[in-house]
Structures are given as C-alpha cells and as structure tokens.
Amino acid sequence: MKRIVTLILCLMMALTCAAAFAEETVGVEKAQLGKLTVNHAFDIKYGDLPDGYTIKQVINNESDITALIQGEGKPLMILSISFDDSSFAEVERLNDVTEEQMNYLKSTWTDEFQNVTFAMAETAYGTQLLVATVTFDDGSMICTIFTIYKGYDIEIDILPIDQNPVTQENIDAVVKFLSDMDFVPIAE
Q1: What is the distance between the alpha carbons of residues 19 and 30, in angstroms, rounded to a whole number?
Q2: Where are the alpha helices (DSSP H) in 34-156?
Q3: 89: Cα within 13 Å, side-chain hemisphere
Q4: What's the DSSP call for residue 111?
Q5: What is the pTM of this model?
Q6: For residues 12-23, average pLDDT
Q7: Whole-angstrom distance, CA of residue 130 vs CA of residue 40
Q8: SS3 of 101, please?
Q9: End-to-end CA distance of the chain
Q10: What is the chain's percent helix, strand, coil content, to nearest 5?
C-alpha cells in the first residue's frame, strides 16, 4: 500500500514539474515574438515575418500605426492599424460583424476595382481575416488582408514594387503570418 501511495505521489510531482516546465517554455516562446503595442489598448504579438522581410519603419501616432515591411526583390507590405470611430468602434472582432457590415466592407473594394475576389482565413486564435485580391487586366495583383480587433481596423496591403509582382505565394505567406498573430488585451 505504501508503495502505491509513494508511486502516486511521485507521479503527481512529475506532472507538476512537467506543467511548470511547459508554462516556462510557453513564456519563453511568447517572449521571442515580435510585439506592437496599439494605443495602450492591446498588443499584437507575432512570429516570424515571411522569408526575406523585415520591418523597415514603424510610425506610431496617437490614432494609428503604420509599418513598412520590405524584402529585397519582394512586393511591399504596408501594415496599418487605426481606430474606426464611425463604423466599427463597438466591434470586438471581424467575427462579430453582421452580414450587412461585411457586404459594406467588401463594397469598399468592389466600388473601386472590377476584378476582386474575397476569401476568409482565420488566425490561430480564432480571429477572422478577410482577404481581398484585385487582379488587373494584365494579370498583376494587389491584395489587402483585413481584420478588426476592439474597434481597430487592421490591414496589410501587398503591393508590387520595382518590377516585383504580387503572387499567390506572397499572399499565402502573409495570410500565414497574420494567422500566427495573437491579439492580447492590456490589463487596466
């Protein structure tokens, strides 16, 4: 009987140590992520940028953040985050918009461009992403990946630069990058 109790205690201690190690490992992993703080409202934590890209410039104003993300021989990415005090100020996430609001969002592209396709993606943490791709008559593309978090419009535009066209592979890499993002509220 004593051996069974001793064995159970040893197993419980081993599980406790494993849980503590796993917690520490998660903390280390999170600490290695990049981070943008958005107006003391929330942090965006992110993993690796798509291959060959670096954040070249971050402009952080009172109302918005713009980051230029560039890579040698690659299309330009522009990340912009701004509070939408008109349409989506009360919206927690893109997941929460009504069908009417989603149609309005899509119309911001279809009113300006003819050949627009839409797709939905989702971050690992469950936040929906709207992917709007515009294909021009010559086959060239631009793309915007859009989401909402706590009333903030968050989008990445992918634009051709210096004869570097936007490809579906570029779009897929940026969707993966955004899918790995974690939106973390700042405790008040």
Answers
A1: 17
A2: 99-110
A3: 4
A4: T
A5: 0.72
A6: 35
A7: 25
A8: helix
A9: 51
A10: 30, 40, 30
Q: 89-133, pLDDT tens digit by residue? A: 788 889 999 999 999 999 999 999 999 999 998 887 788 999 999
Strand partners, 71: 53
The one-character DSSP state at 93 is B
Type of residue numbered 122: E
| Distance, CA of 53 to CA of 158 (rounded, Å) | 12
Beta sheet of 53-60, edge-to-edge order: 53-60, 64-71, 76-83, 152-159, 141-149, 128-135, 116-122
Quote the pLDDT of residue 115.
93
- Fold of the domain built from segment(s) 35-185: Protein Transport Mog1p; Chain A (3.40.1000)
- Written as six digits, the tokens of 61 are 């104003």
**How many angstroms separate the CA atoms of 62 and 84, rounded?**
13
CA 162 from centroid of its chain's CA atoms? 26
Q: 95: which DSSP letter?
A: G
Tally of CB atoms within 10 A around 126: 9
pLDDT reported for residue 32: 40
One-letter amino acid for residue 165 of the chain: P
